[in-house]
TrEMBL record:
A Pfam family it matches: Acetyltransf_1
Keywords tagged on the record: Acyltransferase, Transferase
PROSITE patterns: GNAT
Name of the protein: GNAT family N-acetyltransferase
High-level lineage: Bacteria, Pseudomonadati, Pseudomonadota, Gammaproteobacteria, Aeromonadales
UniProt cross-references to InterPro entries, sorted A to Z: Acyl_CoA_acyltransferase, Bact_Acetyltransf, GNAT_dom
Length: 155
């Protein structure tokens, strides 16, 4: 398996992977997520082209089987929060037919190296409550719970 920077040539594979997770999120949380749409192509291409973000793919042979996006944030406005650089992992997606093969683990390790090279002091991510399998992976990699996001629908 090879982890490398995503390119515009990867867009169809990335969109197919994103559709897998997008369908799941939308089915579980239709008030939070939209169904996959054609607008995602332009958004993903913009993120791929962004110089201040990590957008990497996991490749097996000629096939893209996973991707990860991340960015470095520094709090500059809230006086009671740390000013240390923090790497925020935005997305981790592994093809449903290639899970439990170390791909997610390799993508996270890659993001940690990328973050370390940029002097980040932490890596943070959010995992949806329905994704217990991913939560277990992240906990096995040393991630601990920092907070919870609660939601309430208003009528």
């Amino acid at each position: 398996m090879k982890i490398r920077q995503a390119t515009a040539q990867d867009i169809d594979a990335i969109l197919a992977l994103n559709q897998q997770i997008g369908q799941l999120h939308y089915a579980q949380y239709p008030d939070v997520f939209c169904p996959p749409s054609p607008e995602e192509r332009a958004f993903m291409l913009q993120v791929i082209g962004s110089e201040d973000r990590l957008f990497c793919v996991a490749q097996l042979g000629n096939r893209v089987v996973g991707f990860l996006t991340a960015r470095i944030d520094i709090n500059r406005t809230v006086p009671f929060l740390s000013k240390q650089p923090i790497c925020w992992v935005s997305s981790v997606v592994v093809d449903e037919h290639h899970r439990s093969q170390g791909i997610g683990r390799a993508l996270i390790a890659h993001s940690e190296r990328w973050a370390h090279e940029r002097d980040a002091k932490q890596v943070r991510l959010e995992v949806m409550i329905l994704n217990e399998r991913a939560a277990l992976l992240y906990e096995s990699l040393g991630f601990t719970r920092l907070s919870q996001t609660l939601t309430k629908q208003l009528s």
